[in-house]
Predict the 3D structure of the following.
Amino acid sequence: MLPSPFEFERPSTITDAVRAFGDSGDGMFYSGGTELLLAMKLRVIHTDRLIDIKSILGLDRIALTDANDIEIGARCTHNKIARDPVIRQYVPALSSLCANVANIRVRSVGTIGGNLCFGEPHADPPTMLAALDARLVLQGASGTRLVHVDDFIKSELETVREPDELLTVIVFPRPTGPVTYRRFKHGERPSVNVAMVWSMDAAASTITSARVRVGALGSRPQPLKGVEDALRGLSVAEVRPAIEAVLPTALDELEVNEDRHGAADYKRHLARVLLLRNADEAIAAGWSA
Ligand SMILES: Cc1cc2nc3c(=O)[nH]c(=O)nc-3n(C[C@H](O)[C@H](O)[C@H](O)COP(=O)(O)OP(=O)(O)OC[C@H]3O[C@@H](n4cnc5c(N)ncnc54)[C@H](O)[C@@H]3O)c2cc1C
């Protein structure tokens, strides 16, 4: 099926992209098009105007800043992130995640910004980015704002982004401890995934804080608060028993959607297995930042 007719704009700056949106009063940003064009062809999504953001310079930049933050431009494809030297050096788990998203065609053109903005719960990057405490820079007609990934996805296919706001950059602190990610999938998209990020006190050999997110179970990545609290201040040797003690209660507190990926008990079981595998990997990785 063909999409219904639409106008097409290709701005070369962020300001022009936002202005193009404002002038038309209707429109959608078009990045890799892997979700959007498919939905338009199926006529699930209709727009009068596509604003192609591919020509905007600087949106596909990856850098480690002087403030020790890692910045990823929203137009970076999964492939670009997978191969980037900064990501490979400081967050190899994110490089590996992006190298395994979808299939080669989607990875070549699909972007991290499009992935986040589409709000599909069965996705890989949002879970890890939430564990990394990433913030998103949104630029619209009324200015620029920062939104934490945890607060960005509202519900299935729904985010807090206003229609005229362009996601420009994803920013997170350079990790100072192990970053791990595990997923289980039946088809192309993850059925359940778990990401874990530890901040370390290298001198005392203890975990100063831990961020654990479980994705694809509910409409957005969810924190495993009980596990995060239990890990704070622990040494490596204490990690596994501490997790096992609190995990059943922590998992029970999660919102779980039963769908074609499985029933609630089965998904909680998968989350348990994935989390313990994350923990084993983090323990094996030791303290080196
Ligand atoms: C067959 C298939 C398998 C897949 N498997 C996986 C998988 O295993 N794991 C996974 O995580 N994902 C998977 N995906 C999803 C894939 O990662 C996304 O399709 C891709 O990243 C979307 O990026 P895009 O640039 O193509 O977005 P587009 O299709 O261009 O846009 C998607 C949405 O985001 C909006 N948008 C895009 N960029 C911006 C921006 N910068 N600012 C504001 N709004 C924006 C668009 O208006 C649109 O609403 C799969 C997709 C397909 C088709």
